[in-house]
Amino acid sequence: MLIENAIVVIIGAVVLSIGLVYSLSIIQILKDFNLARPWIMLTTLISFFFIGYIFTALRFLNIDLLPSLSLENLVTAIFFFGAVFVLMLAILNRNLLANIFGMGLNDTKALKIFSEYIQIPSHQVVSMIKPEYYVTCDICHQPVKYSIPDIVRAHPRLERGVIVESAMGGVNYRFFIRHYCDKQYREIPVRHDSHFEYRSHGPSRPV
Ligand SMILES: [Zn+2]
Predict the structure, then answer these.
(1) Distance between CA atoms of residues 195 and 94, nearest Å
(2) Cβ density class 143-156: b for 16+ within 10 Å, e for less
(3) Mean pLDDT of 140-144
(4) Is the pLDDT at 103 greater than 80, yes or no?
(5) What's the 165 CA to ligand 1 centre distance in angstroms?
(6) pLDDT at residue 10 tops 90
């Protein structure tokens, strides 16, 4: 029975080591963007799990590397750090998805962020904008619906979604409208005038 337990734990350790390879490749990708730190912590946790698994498997095989450490203590530690691991992974994924699909902001909050960014009081912004705008996609030729709050939600870094340009007699706004098209995300640059009326748009590009 203990040998069977050891085999299952060893299989678990193999699965864990595959997970380790994947998390190392995630670190490789993220380090260029200076975003690797949480994944380094996760990878360290996975390494500790790996050591714990090997230790437990050996214990089942009656090989005792650290007699002072009981199996109960080890299981307790694995349970606790397992919960920490899941929490970290859930937060990381939530942040990642918020970046891809837009933050979970309601329209009021999004408009507040927008008005602070363009430095115009929000009641003034609200009085000028339309609830919805449309632009035609140059790839699929479908109308793409967007609103100012949509733009804010799609761009956690708003300077990547809204560019304020000085123009004759005021300002122009260049908005980058995110649109899922032909199995990829594209951005359509749209120009609005100082009263937030649609003026023109340029060719889209993949994000
Ligand atoms: Zn399209």
Answers:
(1) 35
(2) ebebbbbbbbbbbe
(3) 93
(4) no
(5) 26
(6) yes
Instruction: Give the single-character DSSP code of 28.
Output: H
Whole-model pTM? Answer: 0.58
> In Å, how far are 125, 135, 154, 162 from 149, measured between CA atoms?
12, 16, 9, 12
Q: Where are the domains of the chain?
A: 2-101, 107-206
What average pLDDT does range 17-27 have in this prediction? 95
Length of the chain: 207
Nearest to 59 by CA among 45, 44, 72: 72
Neighbour tally for 18: CB within 10 Å:
9
- What is the Å distance from ligand 1's center to 152 Cα? 20
- pLDDT at residue number 34: 79
Query: What's the CA-to-centroid distance between 159 and ligand 1, angstroms?
Result: 23
Query: What whole-number distance in Å separates Cα of residue 165 and Cα of residue 101?
Result: 27
- Cα of 153 to ligand 1 centre, how many Å? 19
β-strand partners of 143: 136
User: For 46-100, what is each residue's pLDDT tens digit?
Assistant: 999 999 999 989 988 888 888 888 888 888 998 999 999 999 999 988 887 877 7
State the Cα–Cα distance between residues 192 and 196, nearest whole angstrom. Answer: 5
State in Å: Cα 176 to ligand 1 middle: 14
Given a cut of 90, whether residue 166 has pLDDT beyond it is no
Q: Which helix (H) or strand (E) holds 133?
A: strand 133-136
Residue 117 parent element (H or E)? helix 107-118
